[in-house]
UniProtKB/TrEMBL annotation:
This is Type V CRISPR-associated protein Cas4. InterPro entries: Cas4_PREFRAN, Dna2/Cas4_DUF83, PDDEXK-like_dom_sf. Residues 8-179 form the DUF83 domain. It comes from the Bacteria.
Length: 180
C-alpha cells in the first residue's frame, strides 16, 4: 500500500501556519543563519546532543530514533525514550507555553513507537533552559483533534489558505516572504 507519510515535525509547523512548511522547504538547502530567528537557532543547538546520540551513553536510552506508523501515515524521529521507565521525552530549548502542535508531535511519536513494539507509559516535554519537565496526558478530545489535523494535512490545498492570526504572522520567521 502506498502512503504519503507526514513528517511528525511538520504537525506543529502546520498548526502554526501551513505556509511555514512551504517556506521551510524553500530554505532547506540554505545556511540556517540566513532565515532562522534566535529561538529556532536555540532549538537547533538544543538538539545537537540528541542528533549526535551523545545525550547519554546508558544503554537504556534511545536517542534520535527514526520511527514510523503505517496506520497513521507518520514518519519522523523521537528525541529520547527511556526504556527502563518507558518515558518518551520531547526536548525543547525553552517552554513558555505548551501548544497543541507540541502535544500532537509527542503523541505522534508515541503512536509510532507503540506500533514498532515499544510501550510508552509516560510522555513529557522537557524545557532545557530552565530544566523543567512537563508531563503530558492526552485527552480523548485531543486524540480526536489529532486525527482531524492529520486529515487536514493530507487534504490541504494552498489555494484555499487564508491568514487567520496576524499575531502569528508578526512572529513568523518567514514573514518577509509571505504576503498573506
Amino acid at each position: 500500500m502506498y502512503y504519503d507519510y507526514i513528517q511528525i515535525s511538520k504537525i506543529n509547523d502546520y498548526l502554526f501556519c501551513p505556509w511555514s512548511i512551504y517556506f521551510h522547504s524553500v530554505y532547506e538547502n540554505f545556511e540556517e543563519c540566513l532565515y532562522k530567528a534566535k529561538p529556532q537557532i536555540g532549538g537547533t543547538i538544543a538538539h545537537k546532543t540528541i542528533e549526535s546520540k551523545t545525550y547519554s551513553t546508558e544503554a537504556g536510552f534511545l536517542q534520535s530514533l527514526e520511527v514510523f506508523s503505517e496506520k497513521y501515515g507518520l514518519i519522523g524521529k523521537i528525541d529520547l525514550y527511556n526504556q527502563k521507565t518507558q518515558t518518551l521525552t520531547e526536548r525543547k530549548n525553552k517552554i513558555q507555553q505548551i501548544y497543541d502542535g507540541q502535544i500532537f508531535q509527542l503523541y505522534a511519536q508515541k503512536l509510532c513507537l507503540e506500533e514498532m513494539g515499544y510501550t510508552v507509559k509516560k510522555k513529557e516535554i522537557y524545557s532545557m533552559t530552565d530544566n523543567k519537565k512537563y508531563p503530558i496526558i492526552i485527552s480523548e478530545a485531543q486524540k480526536f483533534k489529532f486525527t482531524q489535523v492529520l486529515e487536514a494535512i493530507k487534504n490541504f490545498d494552498f489555494s484555499e489558505l487564508k491568514t487567520t492570526n496576524l499575531l502569528k504572522c508578526d512572529n513568523c520567521i518567514y514573514r518577509t516572504l509571505c504576503k498573506k
